[in-house]
Amino acid sequence: MGFFLETLLGGLMTGMLYSLVALGFVLIFKASGVFNFAQGAMVLFAALAMARFSEWLPKWFGFESLVLANVLAFIVAGVIMFAVAWLIEWLVLRHLVNQEGATLLMATLGITYFLEGLGQTLFGNSIYKIDVGMPKDPVIAFENVFQGGILINQEDLIAAAISAALVTLLSLFFQKTSTGRALRAVADDHQAAQSIGIPLARIWVVVWCVAGVVALVAGMIWGSKLGVQFSLATVALRALPVVILGGLTSVPGAIIGGLIIGVGEKLSEVYIGPLVGGGIEIWFAYVLALAFLLVRPQGLFGEKIIDRV
Question: Which residues are listed as membrane-spanning (predicted)?
Fold first, then answer.
């Protein structure tokens, strides 16, 4: 029982990180109808900015505090992501309003490769580290309850707590603020929202900025775990099954979908992997997403689309 709970807890913590990345997809799709394939590149670009500025700022200003370096680097990287989000909306998206979905998808693919190339030009192409002081050593808990206790990775636990806190703040932002209500109105009907005076361009800038902050937090966490390297952009691919499972238009769906995928990966790798030769953790999420596409294409919490002719 202890081992099962240990695996389950590890899956929940990993799933929370998947949810954080998936949230970037959902936020932009809800507000603009754009499937942002560049979300992975935004995570990479944000992680590169934070990693490099946390290294550069102490040299430029002559201080040695790791905490101060990380705080300042986070702020600078946040400003950069706000600028990137504004430029994407100003230079690309506002010129593609009411275009076909395939056109918008190709535009985000172009943004992906541009951000990856720009990141390499500005910050280099080596492997960098982000050290935000999270403990790396695992601890054993509940020794009095289960024989041998439960092994808990402290870094994963803190990362999951940060992800949960950000998701909670974003949920409150959407539900309790006037800007959040405007975002939901735009998500429901662009033309109706515009007819009552909601400026679509401003709303899209806001939602892309929020997605940039989400990408920064995700990049910081994943960069701390895996190191900042260009393969970090593929983290977004791990979040694709999450948005398919939860629904492209649902914030709660991104959370629940991430938890289901995270737990499913861990349990299948431990209990089914030995029977099929291992490696199931790599493809489990995609097979589950394919099954949902066949049975419920809109996902668990997505809105069912009915076309009347």
Answer: 7-28, 34-54, 66-88, 157-174, 203-222, 242-263, 275-295
How many alpha carbons lie under 13 Å from residue 113 in its C-beta half-sphere? 5
How many CA atoms within 13 Å lie on the side-chain side of 136?
Answer: 7
Sign of CA dihedral 159, 31, 235, 281: positive
pTM for this one?
0.86
Chain centroid to CA 250: how far?
A: 14
Residue that has been written with the tokens 């389950």 in this structure: 8
Helix, coil or strand: residue 128: strand
The one-letter amino acid code at 129 reads K
Helix, coil or strand: residue 15: helix
Query: Over the stretch 90-142, which tens digit does the pLDDT of each residue have?
Result: 888 778 766 777 788 888 889 999 998 999 899 988 888 888 877 777 788 77
| Structure-token match 């990993």, residue found | 14
Query: What is the C-alpha separation between 236 and 40, in angstroms, rounded?
Result: 5
Strand residues in the chain grouped as ranges (E): 138-141, 150-153
pLDDT digits (tens, 9 = 90+) for 207-242: 888 888 888 998 888 888 878 887 777 777 778 889
User: Domain-by-domain residue ranges, the chain?
Assistant: 25-233
Structure tokens at 133: 């002081």
**What is the spatial distance between Cα 99 and Cα 108, in angstroms, rounded to a whole number?**
13
Q: Which residues pair with 141 in a beta bridge?
A: 150
Phi, psi of 298 (to 5 degrees): -80, 0
**Closest CA relative to residue 74, chosen from 108, 110, 101, 47:** 47
Residue 78 CA to residue 300 CA, distance in Å, equals 32
SS3 category, 297:
coil
Distances 125 to 15, 53, 87, 225 between C-alpha atoms, Å: 28, 15, 23, 18
Which residues have C-beta within 8 Å of that of residue 36, sequence separation ≥ 6? 24, 25, 28, 29, 42, 108, 211
